[in-house]
Amino acid sequence: MELQAAFDHLLSTETPLDGLDALVWHSLAAGATVGKHPWATGCLTTIAKNVDEQSCPSSRTVVLRRCDVEAHSIDFHTDVRSSKVQELECGQAAVCWLFYHPSTKIQLRLQGTASVLNDRQADAAWETVSLLSRSAYLSFEPPSKAVAGSQPPSTTERFVELAESERGRENFRLVRTQVELVDLLYLRQGGHVRASIAYGKKSSVELSWLVP
Ligand SMILES: Cc1cc2nc3c(=O)[nH]c(=O)nc-3n(C[C@H](O)[C@H](O)[C@H](O)COP(=O)(O)O)c2cc1C
Q1: What does the domain layout of the chain look like in residue ranges?
Q2: pLDDT at site 91
Q3: Which of 1-10, 92-101, 145-154, 184-193 shows the lowest mean pLDDT across its residues?
């Protein structure tokens, strides 16, 4: 069912909170598998340090690659040399994901803790990365490095045959977010709706309506 229709249907039931957790995770699972789903890409915020070593937020778009409905975790792929990995590995593992669907005005905010994986799960994820997407891991110079010149730097080294693309594996990482808090806001024509879902230790799940 389309995202808005699914939320509208749930809200028309007697006890919508009972089905909210399942619907949110169903929608995230769809986001990770259906290319044009509104949750196919999200905005990921990490905590960076500015030039004065002060904490400051840093946001960027990433592709939602995998969703574990049971474990309440979501994954994206990235380059180990990227700033976000350095931020996550410097003791700043708190992250926030934001998904927004402009035409229905549904916003989903997920807070959690991220881990950078380079294990057999990362190996398996790498095997699913297409040749075109592997180009993101094949730059000789690290991402974000400043480059002098009047034109953008060449990226020809990234367009290689499948066998050579294997060298990208050393730069590839799987980043998993353990979701701890969901904040859903739906600017519905019939009245705005907002709810939170908190996942505690020992598998507790607390659902609550919030003032929108
Ligand atoms: C549509 C879109 C999808 C993107 N997906 C990813 C992704 O899945 N992983 C990733 O590391 N960067 C992705 N990027 C690039 C990031 O937004 C960002 O520019 C890059 O990762 C550098 O971020 P950082 O310097 O904060 O680490 C994507 C960008 C766009 C526009």
Answers
A1: 3-124+170-210
A2: 86
A3: 1-10
Which residue minimizes the CA distance to atom 11 of ligand 1?
A: 78
CATH class of the domain whose range is 3-124+170-210: mainly beta
Q: What is the pLDDT of residue 1?
A: 62
Q: What is the mean pLDDT of the chain?
A: 96
> 28: which 2 tokens?
């995230």
- Residue 85 CA: which ligand 1 atom is closest? 27
Cα(156)–Cα(176) distance, rounded to whole angstroms? 30
Sign for the pseudo-dihedral over CA of 164, 165, 171, 174: negative
Pairing of strands 66-68, 106-117: unpaired
Contact 67, 74 (CB under 8 A): yes
d(CA 191, CA 166): 52
Is there a contact between 137 and 172 (Cβ–Cβ < 8 Å)?
A: yes
Distance CA 175, CA 122 (A): 9
| Structural tokens at position 83 | 């700033």
DSSP 117: E
- Residue 83 CB less than 6 A away from ligand 1: yes
CA gap 134, 65 in Å, rounded = 14
**Total-model pTM:** 0.96
